[in-house]
Amino acid sequence: xxxxxxxxxxxxxxxxxxxxxxxxxxxxxxxxxxxxxxxxxxxxxxxxxxxxxxxxxxxxxxxxxxxxxxxxxxxxxxxxxxxxxxxxxxxxxxxxxxxxxxxxxxxxxxxxxxxxxxxxxxxxxxxxxxxxxxxxxxxxxxxxxxxxxxxxxxxxxxxxxxxxxxxxxxxxxxxxxxxxxxxxxxxxxxxxxxxxxxxxxxxxxxxxxxxxxxxxxxxxxxxxxxxxxxxxxxxxxxxxxxxxxxxxxxxxxxxxxxxxxxxxxxxxxxxxxxxxxxxxxxxxxxxxxxxxxxxxxxxxxxxxxxxxxxxxxxxxxxxxxxxxxxxxxxxxxxxxxxxxxxxxxxxxxxxxxxxxxxxxxxxxxxxxxxxxxxxxxxxxxxxxxxxxxxxxxxxxxxxxxxxxxxxxxxxxxxxxxxxxxxxxxxxxxxxxxxxxxxxxxxxxxxxxxxxxxxxxxxxxxxxxxxxxxxxxxxxxxxxxxxxxxxxxxxxxxxxxxxxxxxxxxxxxxxxxxxxxxxxxxxxxxxxxxxxxxxxxxxxxxx
Length: 542
Description:
single chain, globular, four-stranded mixed sheet, 18 helices, alpha+beta
């Protein structure tokens, strides 16, 4: 997902049950525990909670609770399994016939039909609606007419999308795409009820989905309250009464509230607490590999950083970073030095291949100094690393990375951190191309395929290409990978594209991130999925 990405924060500007005062440093500190309700830390999302317009992690958490799509990723293994899809059939890996299961409804009682998907996808794809995830529909025929690169749309709906019955529809892609069905668990492909189209403002003020939770209220800067949906027809009903997502601008405050009994679940643990979190919480701590990659990304739209000559500068900065030292000293077993642009969670079948970054992901400060100087030095003699300040771990690792760069260059003022107040503000700067130097980036996979780690982030028109990286060879290789006849051939082609990233270095792989969380005595059965997100519906709360 998300950033990992995602217009104006319509939903975040509107409280679902009345806009309240924003919290300053923490969430609803001291809020009494409601029976059966999980109190969890959270950040306000950047964008409205429309499925095709949300690709940041906070918004993704909510969408994952209030929607179910054609596919769902197994919370334990990450495997894509049919959810609302009864069947997805193809004879040529280009035209797919989809049958929707009987009995599914939205929380307002409306049946989920084939048209619920077709209307949602057409809405998400149309340029007029300016949806951040419109890119995910580009493989469907007619996308170039509803979402042209230049000019106005010449069509309102995707020509490759045809409803053939109440529960059936067909999708015609622009090319063969053997792994396309696996992508359909991503929330951009979620169905939408009629009220989304007939009274959009009402839907934004209280989203109606088809998942195991409903949104009860939202006060920006304070809390979003979700409650278990009565009569939910799916196989994964909530085991708790609901979840209160409490907004924190400082994860250290969230951790303090957790220890004090004012909060039940924190899945953004401050780095300073990682050495003793298990002891503090009496073993109520989860730490496991997740499909999350942290990078240091460059604003390729700025010639000082994105020029051909600057390729040596970017590589030199990578070589100045002692990844093992940072992960050991700052993250204490919750990160692993990265050697490629994906995640070990994918395994070989999903496209992970260690070492594709080559020697550029090693640590060689002498060579780093030579490369940086040969490229003309740091632009203006200084660099900053931008990061959102509302997480408890970014400052520590940014300082550690800058210290390594400073040592390599023999200048203790060469690199400094540049904090931005909140995640939403930070995302706005990225979206508006206002970064003047390297910036923190993280990618949480949307689905367990190498394609998801490469195409959204580095393809020219990628939905999360915050670097504005462009490489025609990379784009062609990705296109070939998507058209491959088998998943195995697709993976091999994507890895060839990844080698182009190793040469160009628009982003420096830093480390693979574990999912980690601490929880209170009120909770049981706390687990994280392969994306590093709590499996909220399985948590039992006292």
